Each structure stands twice: as C-alpha cells, then as structure tokens.
Amino acid sequence: MPTRAKIYVYSVIAAAGVAIAAALPQWHSANPSWYLIYLAFILAASAVKLRLPGMDAAFSVTFLPLLFGLLRFGYAEMMLAATVAGIAQTVLNVKKRPLFIQIVFNAADLVVSAAACSLFLHSFAAPGGSSSPAIICGMAALYFLVNTVLVSGILALLQGKRLNEVCETWYVWSFAYYLLGAAIVGLTAAIRSAEAWLILIPIVYLVHFYYGLSVRKADSDATPECGVEALVLSRAARAFLYLVLCSGFTLLVWSLMNWSSMNLARFATFLIAAAITATWKITLPKMTGTLSVGFVIALFAVAELTLPELLSIATVVALMQSVWRPRRQPILAQVLFNMAAWVLSAACAFGAGQLGLAAIDSGPLSVMLIASTFALYGTNILLVSAMICLAEGNPLSAIWRNCCFWSLPYYLIGTAVSGIMVLASRSGNWMASLLVVAIMAMVYVSYRAQVRQAMAGPIEACS
User: Fold this and answer.
1) By residue range, what is the domain housing residue 204?
2) 210 has a pLDDT exceeding 50
3) Distance between CA atoms of 300 and 173, rounded to whole angstroms?
4) Fewer CB in 10 Å around end: N or C, the chain?
5) Is residue 436 a part of any domain in this protein?
6) For residues 241 and 228, what is the distance between their CA atoms, to the nearest angstrom?
7) Do 34 and 158 fall into the same domain?
8) pLDDT mean over 139-164
9) Domain with 390 in it: what CATH number?
10) pLDDT value of residue 458
11) pLDDT confidence band for 199 (50 / 70 / 90)
12) This prediction's pTM
C-alpha cells in the first residue's frame, strides 16, 4: 500500500476511534431488546449485496438500517451499530476473504459517517426529538457525501486515479438506489401522511431511467436537437418569437407593477437560491439547450410565494441558466426568449396549481404540485419545441419526444424534492427547507455523470 494511502487509512481509523471514545461515557439503551433486534437486522442487511448495471462489484444495503437507526437510537448505540455494520458488510457474502485492514477501514468509514449524521441531527432536530422531512433529507445527503468521499478517497489513492473519476465510475451509479432507500427510511420513520409516499413514484422512475442509461449505447442517429441557440429564424419563427417576448414581458411588467410579498427576507433568500441552482446545468444528448436545478425553487415558489415573486424568480432562473458559462455565447434574442418562456411557464404553473386546489377544495399538496409541474414543464417544452419546429422545420412530435426522454425524469424527482421543501416550510421553519436542496444537488451531480457516460457509450466495469 502506498505511503499516502496508509496515512489516509490510519487517519480515518483514528477519527473513528475518537468518535467511539466519545460515545463510551454516553452508553445507554432505553430498550435493549429492540436494540438487539436492530443489530440482528443490520447483520442481515449487510449480507444483501446489489449488483449495479454494468458493474462487476456490488454494494451493501447496510445504509438502510443505519439511516433508520440514526432517527431512533442514541449516539452511543449508533457507534456500536455502525461498527457492527462495517465489519459485517466486509466479511459477509464476499467473493474473497478481506484483509484485516480492509475490515477495520470499512468499519471506521461507517462510524465516521454515522457520527457526522448524529452531530447534524443533534444540531438541527427539534427539542422533542422529532425530525422534519428537511432534516432527514439533509442527514441522508450528509451520510452519502461523507461515506462516498471517504471510500472514494482510498480507492483513488490505491488506483492512482482522480477522486471525481472514481466517483463517476462507481458511486454515482449507486446514487439512484441509495436515494430510493433513503426516501423509504425517511417516509417510514417520520412522515405519516399517505400522500408523502408519492415521492417513491419519481424516485422509482429515476432508478428505471438510470438502468436504461446504463445499457444504452451512444445515440448517433439524426434526432432533432432541443434548444434555441444559433438558429436562423424564418418569418414564422420571428413572429412566434415576438409573440412570446411580448406576452412574457408584458406579464412580468404587470406583476412588478402589482408587487406583493408576504416575507421579503424569505423571497430574497429563495431568489439567491434560484440564481445559484440555475447555474447547476446539464447539457443533454441531442439538445443544444440546458437543464438546471432552478425549476425546483420555482415549484416551491408556486406553492409558497406570491405570483410577482414567482415570476421574478423565474426570470432570474432563465437569465442565469442562459448566461452562466454557456457552451456558445448566446445572442440577446435567445436570452430574452428563454426569460419570456420561463415567465409564461411559471404563470401557467401558478394558475394550474390554484385551479387544482380550487377543484378539490384545498386538498392535498401533491395535487397542486403535480398540476403545477405539468404546467411548468409542458409549457416550457412546448414553447421551446415550437420555436425549433418553426425555425428548422423538424416535426414537433420528434422534438417533443427527445426533450421529454431526457428531461422528464429530472423534473419528476425535482417535483418530489420541492414537495418536501414546501412541507418543511409549512412546518414553521422555511429556512430548513433549504436543506432539501442538498438532495437535489446530489441528483444533479449523479444525473450529469449518468448522461455524460451515456453520451460516451457503454460504461466500463469497475471492480
């Protein structure tokens, strides 16, 4: 083992030792019988290994009982549980006998990850011990981040590769499955509303989509591109462009003239969040346009902010998405079209959400979010597709199918994330809802890597 790798391994083990030493004086088990059952469940889960698409190696589902235990047991109990989980997942159901240092490092990895999550929960959980959906999302994101960085770090040192390369060839592919498990744990442990389980639908679809990408070869056919960059506009296209610009900016000016805000601090915070997340962009195959995380903040604004605030956020998202590090410098007409299209889409989403609530007499949040998502997504895709159809003469249906294939999964998972943000905001702490953005940031990183590898061709196996 290289010297740098030895130093890294011993450092992680030392950090785990400190975490365990701090837990020993705090040992207390309110219900030893349940705790023993929990440890037995960890042992059983450690023997279950999942084979990811295109991968030679497998990963354990130990993270499921660990995440659940973090919400149910104390710090000292979780340090012991993490140690047991690390040892068990290393020695159970493996092809070859692991080295002693591997067993110790894997146990230390889980101990450090669990300790970080315990500290997070202690810092943000309510005094009564309950955890909101936003807190659970933040904890799950932290666990995945710490665990991924620790293991990827040693693999990068041993294989002589860059850290991001290791993540993209192995751990990024596991993220969809991890996200599904984390959602199940969070829903089981803390969310009792039946409609909250709707979050599983987009996540299951995301897993299915990732599996499709893993076996999908690079598409070389002449699929129409989706985007508005560098188009030579015909007369009909120019007329459509002017119609969208006039409609969008008229609506924006009207909203600014009728400005209203229930909480300026909240609006300013989410405006900044929208500007930042709009820079998290993905360039999809056969699409000259981009997809960003900004729509999640827009969907939150549909449910929680006023129409003028929503349209302001939509304008910022479109502007940042267009001008932040573009592949090709956009012309003014492209930027203005994107801004107008976003304003119109956001207004349609707001109207659809209000109509959805009115139709069901102030029913569940999921109905409003679903209606708003389809309005936001459908309007934006329709405007962009129609623009390309008029400019290039390609069939509208072909452009629509290509756009939907790549962007619909992203919107579905974003809808679920925005729903958790709204639930967190309505629980009385709108600042906590920003913690959920951490999950969407990981979805963005994972999705971008998935698409990049799918565009490059079949992925290489990683053992």
Assistant:
1) 3-214
2) yes
3) 28
4) C
5) no
6) 11
7) yes
8) 87
9) 1.10.1760.20
10) 44
11) low
12) 0.71
